[in-house]
Amino acid sequence: MTSPDLLPVTGAWQPGDDPGNRQFFTHATDRRFALDAGVALRDVVVAYETWGHLDADASNAVLLCHAWTGDSHAAGAAGRGHPTEGWWDDMVGPGRPVDTDRYFVVCANVLGGCQGSTGPASPHPDDGRPYGSRFPVVTIRDMVRSQARLMESLGIRRWLAVVGGSMGGMQALEWAVMYPRRVRSLVAVATCMQATAQQIAWGAIGRRAIRLDPKWRGGDYYEADPGDGPGEGLEIARMVAQVTFRSDNVFTDRFGRELADTARVGDTFDMWQRFEVERYLEHHGDKLVRRFDANSYLSIGKAMDLHDVARGRGSLERAMARVVAPTMSVGIWSDMLYPAYQQQQIHEAIATRGVPSEYVEIDSPHGHDAFLINGDQLAAPLERFLGRAAKADL
Amino acid sequence: MTSPDLLPVTGAWQPGDDPGNRQFFTHATDRRFALDAGVALRDVVVAYETWGHLDADASNAVLLCHAWTGDSHAAGAAGRGHPTEGWWDDMVGPGRPVDTDRYFVVCANVLGGCQGSTGPASPHPDDGRPYGSRFPVVTIRDMVRSQARLMESLGIRRWLAVVGGSMGGMQALEWAVMYPRRVRSLVAVATCMQATAQQIAWGAIGRRAIRLDPKWRGGDYYEADPGDGPGEGLEIARMVAQVTFRSDNVFTDRFGRELADTARVGDTFDMWQRFEVERYLEHHGDKLVRRFDANSYLSIGKAMDLHDVARGRGSLERAMARVVAPTMSVGIWSDMLYPAYQQQQIHEAIATRGVPSEYVEIDSPHGHDAFLINGDQLAAPLERFLGRAAKADL
What is the SS3 assignment for B108? Predict the structure, then answer.
């Protein structure tokens, strides 16, 4: 344990830590796992959690795909092995929209992540030391391919639904394009077919902030003392993201121009006197540093920027023509990061081929994070959609 | 001269550099210049430029207020003493909307700036060494008070118009609130009455990036070797701002998902292989580092975050009730940083008191920077508004 005042060098889950509800599956033990980058990994670990029971014909399995800083802990309390409550806890459980009394629900930490699956903080099989700068660039497709190995190991031939928001939606889309026969239905929330220049711009700024932190050490910082890791760079990268995840109006309502550090409230005119919104952003950054890994942040961010369902497939139209899964595409009107037009484009690309598709818009002021915040609005459409998929009524 | 490959430690104009078209006015030579921060400066230099001729009754003077990284060089070519073309060159000149055949046009580098006016890179009068970390926090009101000293020295009792965009608009608004009898008319473009939480958030992230740069050295970096200044922190801060100055759609049209560094174009899957939008942002950051000062960036950014016409005036309503200048408030529909509702609020706050006010919206996809890019749309309304002000027809 590090002192509560010293930021950990990495917030990654490490072998030997309490597994919590994680299960582990290792693939590429006999042959290498080829990546889009043209290199390969071996002994690739997938940390995952499951809820509910797989039925006899393996027809009730739902895959949840997590977002940038998510992990396999989609549902359940925080506790030993799980620094945070499940990221979709209000949506997943008995009687909830993703009803674990009906469905066998699977959520895997992505390749490149830091909560049990192989990523930059994991031990390299050659020497047992963290990959660090040796970890290759991975793509959304690599993540999906790794999940496909897990799927096979679980005895599932087709997902009843693949469901994801933000980067999770990128994975869900790639599932439907890469493995059309393995996806019975698709739910893509607040996501896009191709990362746009503006999305890449935000990602690039975060990368630069981490690289600027001298404690990042080119990616090989794992042996540093507590408090001597790249926490400040990661915090700034997270601050950038956090603004794009929310909205102008909600920031105004919640923070306005209030000052933080009220013990110093006379110091309005100090350069480093913080406004409340700064305190909030730094708090979120600090929280992330305690549960995440800077190199994983880079790795997953780059995967998102490289996300392009058209890459190597001739055109966007030809790529999307592979999708045969009935689809629910969900947008959020206040989302500045993945604006609603992008989810409408997904819906239109699928519907235009005659595949059943619906577009649902969440009427929330909370911006991109509304897919995590406004479960109230997503609950009914998602429950209905999954129910129809289960009855083959789509 | 530094090598073209080595970034300068500061891009500030320094005493001894070619003055170009600058003129200099020094105030607070006999008594100190009190700042909102509760401290005072002395020997405060204002670098300014003028165009045209002041008429006999000093009734044709127009004050232009510049934005964050602007300077006194509102019009004219780049050249000796002026690293860039005038920031509003298409709007200011003979026969142009701000017609220098008719008006005496003044533009002063702001207090805290780095292009000739007193700022953090300026010599401290006590020891001749740069202020650096000794430079106090300044406010928009301090900038305006310093401009008011210049005004008096020029023999001007009332501006025909005070005109500004972005931070320039903040100054223009404060002019109308602080000195209502000295402002005949007001043009406030893409600005706000109070910095919002989201605007502060972007500013805070830029501050943190500069502070993270070990070469910033707590603000005392001026004696570093070329290439050893806080250029990387400033570059990242500028990258954040640059995204907020533009728009999603234009980034998509202009950059899409193109890769830069075409000599390395095979390296799509390299963490530091850049997309074209990254190259563009880094290019803008690099350009800024060559002509600006990191501490000035902090200083002016903080002044913008502290901008609140209501501060110390009871309420926003009471502050805005001081404005008696007929006003043109200009918004840009695609502006994500200063959304158009903020300029509508300015218009409404003034019009509701019975003061003549009009709201004009620039129909441009270019975002906040449209006030610099789309002179074509601002030209006619601005020319007409100034003409009516000159004829006392407002």
Answer: strand
